[in-house]
Amino acid sequence: MPLIIKDEYPERLFREDGKRLDGRAINELRPIKMEVGIIPNADGSAYLEWGNNKIFAAVYGPREVHPHHLSKPDKGILRVFYRMATFSVFDRKRPAPGRREKEISMIVSDCIEPLLFLELYPGTSFEVFIEVLDADGGTRCASTTIAALALADAGVPMKSLVSAVAVGKIDGKKVVDLSGIEDKAGEADLPIAITWYNEEISLLQFDGDMDLNDMNEFLDLAKDALKEIHQIQLNALKSKYIKLQEETLKEKEEKKGEK
Amino acid sequence: MENNDDEITDDEFEDFADEEDSREVVVPGEVLTEDVTNFLPGRGTILNKEKNKIISLNIGLKQIKKNYINVIPLRGFYTPRPGDKVIALVVEKNPVKYKCDINAKDFGQLKPKNTIKKGKIRGFRGGAQLREEVSTEKYEIGDILVVKVLSADRLNKPELTTVGKYLGKKSGGIVITIDPPKIPRVIGRNGSMIKMLKNLTKCNIFVTQNGRIWLKGEDIAHERLLIESVHKIASEAHTIGLTDRMQDYIINEKKKRGIE
Question: If you placed Cys at A150, which of A57, A193, B70, B143 could pair as Cys (CB 3.0 to 4.6 Å)?
Fold first, then answer.
């Protein structure tokens, strides 16, 4: 007999002082930390902590396609493997890839593909492995964000980065960046990804119950959050190099001072 | 085979030439300039759809040369081009050809007819007989070869040759690998860095475009120092005044380690 623990959600998703259960305002993101180049054997890699989400991404390629029949003679392919660790959620996650894994792998790959120059690498594949170690809502947005970052770290030519965030409706209010419990107990959620080249939307999913007239408001809310996330991505990519540059400049100046 | 350590000087290696250039780090999607009348998109850049901005495609350093804006990549992979001299590892062989790992997406193909010199042409009807037998007995699996890329494009596997100056089997020494985009920095402007490394560590060093470096020194201590220096150069490739800094570093390390 499997042990069945019923999910219990709080009745209200806002505290008495008007903030959300984790103390955020309605347009506030969870704390985000990103790092690149942490897996030495991969061609490119990145690590993300987004609230309680902890996600690794590694990029390999261009390399031969296995199985070979998936390769295309006129262009390369981008394959994304999204997996969750068994201990990443409350119940044990079965490690075999199911419908959810396949779906998220597909949407991440479709999100990023238009930005790459795959026609330059026919018959090859770029492979992105995304491993979710800890999940707490919004992993598809976090995975998209981190996959783009890992590809940029690998030196794959791309038109721009991709950032993603979920907006939604909880207790009748529009909020940004839903956490796990808000996602389950809330009314609607709407993951949005944007490509910064031409600022086009490259992912828009919807689940729940909301008025179509609210759509523009949701998009405005998402845009501000996405800009913030994009800035964090840029800083993560650059900081490694800029830090070293500043250190060496300082050393040089010190030496000049001595002379 | 001993003194074939001449550095290759190609236009390819003039990338990091101007040391005192601005060393601004840019990332994919970053706007390099909105002035499209005076500047043209160069290597590693693209115009956006409205054609009013030049944006970067790579993570790298922004460089302005005449009226072109280039981005020198800091990360990336090696794409073989005809004429490149690269270090290859024989991974497979059959009576028809060798397969060589050249650090690219495809294995390079080395046909036995490209491993032996043709005889001098005598008379007017064709050349003389080949001096050696055409077979894949010459090299073994696991050999390190210096090869030249004869033909390479994005569809077919690159074809290699070992006939030519400085080409052929390397015996002894150590091969290390660094990120291919950082190779120009190991060579330096007009080979200044590589000359400095050779003089100070008394090692033979052969740098190739696929990111592999062959080196052989008098003793293991010098070799070890050289390997550490090369990795240090690779990790600090985007900084200013690297050659002077490396010179100080090697002299200091030599004193510290007690090697002459």
Answer: A57
What is the least distance, in Å, from the CA of B217 to any CA of chain A? 28
Is the pLDDT assigned to residue A105 strictly greater than 50? yes
Q: What is the pLDDT of residues A114-171, one digit of tens each?
A: 999 999 999 999 999 999 999 998 999 999 999 999 999 999 999 999 999 999 999 9
DSSP assignment of chain A equals ----------S-SB-TTS-BTTS--TT-PPPEEEEE---TTSSEEEEEEETTEEEEEEEEEEEE-SSGGG--SSS-EEEEEEEE-TTSSSSPPPSS--HHHHHHHHHHHHHHGGGB-GGGSTTEEEEEEEEEEE--S-HHHHHHHHHHHHHHHTT--BS--EEEEEEEEETTEEEES--HHHHHHSSEEEEEEEETTTTEEEEE--EE---GGGHHHHHHHHHHHHHHHHHHHHHHHHHHHHHHHHHHHHHHHHHHHH-
pTM: 0.88
Amino acid present at A22: D
Question: Topology of B173-257 in CATH?
Answer: Ribosomal Protein S8; Chain: A, domain 1 (3.30.1370)
Indicate the length of chain A as a whole number: 259
Q: What residue segments make up the domains of chain B, in order of their start?
A: 15-73, 85-170, 173-257
Tell me whether residues B240 and A160 touch, CB distance under 8 A: no
B211 torsion bin: left (phi>0), alpha (psi -120 to 50), beta (else): left
pLDDT tens, residue by residue, B13-23: 455 545 445 67
**Cβ atoms A125, A71 nearer than 8 A:** yes
Distance between CA atoms of B114 and B133, rounded to whole angstroms? Answer: 12
Strand partners, A53: A50
Nearest to A128 by CA among A115, B180, A137, B27: A115
Interchain CB distance below 8 Å, B55 and A197:
yes
Nearest to B242 by CA among B13, B9, B6, B17: B17
**B85-170 domain in CATH 2.40.50.140?**
yes
The nearest CA of chain B is from the CA of A114 a distance in Å of 13
B15-73 is classed in which CATH architecture?
A: Beta Barrel (2.40)
Q: Does B59 touch chain A (CB under 8 A)?
A: yes
Examine domains B15-73 and B85-170 and report if their fold is the same. Answer: yes
- Domains of chain A, with CATH numbers? 32-254 (3.30.230.70)
Query: What is the gyration radius of the CA atoms in chain A, in angstroms?
Result: 20
What ipTM describes this predicted complex? 0.84
- Interface touch B29/A153, C-beta < 8 Å: no
